[in-house]
Amino acid sequence: MSNEIINLKYICKEYNGESVIENLNLNIKKNEFITLLGPSGCGKTTTLRMIGGFEAPTSGEVYFEGKVINDLPAYKRHINTVFQKYALFPHMNVFDNIAFGLKIKKLSKDEITLKVNKMLDLVSLSNFGGRKIDSLSGGQQQRIAIARALVNEPKVLLLDEPLGALDLKLRKEMQVELKNMQQKLGITFIYVTHDQEEALTMSDTIVVMDKGYIQQVGTPVEIYNEPQNRFVANFIGDSNIIQGIMKKDFLVNFSEKDFKCVDKGFDENEEVDIVVRPEDIEISLNDNFMIKGEVKSIVFKGVHYEIMVEEHNFHWKIHSTKWIEVGNVVGINISPENIHIMKKSGV
């Protein structure tokens, strides 16, 4: 029996003759928290809407549990959606908002009460059933919107940037709560965001998109530590990306020197892009260094200083707990496992 619940095969989407999704293929597993991540206009929300039945693909097939559902209307899919604008009914109290879908299904009063109370408990709002919607905070309204979507027991929950309207502290709290909910319920969450930290915090799998194409699919650790191209490396976290030449397996040249690395499988003397994360660079104040440069700026970021060091016309971004005076010449050390080699890309 397949472990996949949704398969997108050769999905294309056009608006007025303009392509926004091109030959997209994606397999989504049961009980997975998967995030579609990318900048505005990359196609992530359009993809979500095609899964939910709010948009039809121009070509290609959407499969749900092995069956094509292109022509199945949204209300007949075992899929519910939480939007950024929660669309709660202001004339109904919290209980009736959550119960709305159950009443349409004509469940008994006792069953509705049982299911709604269970959802209120899940979203930590057990005593809020009688409250009016306009008396709730943004975070509480968001939880009610999630409870209303989950009470119908969908097999898949779609979340379209649902934390976008919340302040930073509440957004971070809700990231943890959403992941906990998904693990408790054991259903598939498909989440859309442009926020890299959100994606890295919550996801089992991240799908990085740009200009209608999937750039990379992987776990948060894979996406962060092993970006496949320049776009992914730039979009996920801070990166130093420098051009180099792969001399041979495990040996790369940049900054006019050869350095050991852990990558292989490239052609000899192939031009490559090299990515090094700022936190993976060590500053040396003695004669033990790989390369050296002049400190051009230093900014306090709370848990570290962000230091810009100029070397051979390249500005290295470094995260360090050391304070270094601007104008000082310092050494830079990078261990082989922190030098990541990427194929040259036009992205």
TL;DR of this structure?
The protein has 347 residues and is an alpha+beta fold. It is 24% helix and 36% strand.
If you had to describe this structure to a student in words, what would you say it looks like?
By secondary structure, the chain is α+β, with helices and mostly antiparallel strands. It folds into two domains: 4-230, Rossmann fold (3-Layer(aba) Sandwich), CATH 3.40.50.300; 238-343, OB fold (Dihydrolipoamide Acetyltransferase, E2P) (Beta Barrel). 24% of the residues lie in helices and 36% in strands. The protein has eight helices and 20 strands. Strand 4 (59-64) and strand 5 (67-68) form a beta hairpin. Helix 2 (94-104) packs across helix 3, helix 2 (94-104) runs parallel beside helix 4 (138-150) and helix 3 packs across helix 4. The mean pLDDT is 92.
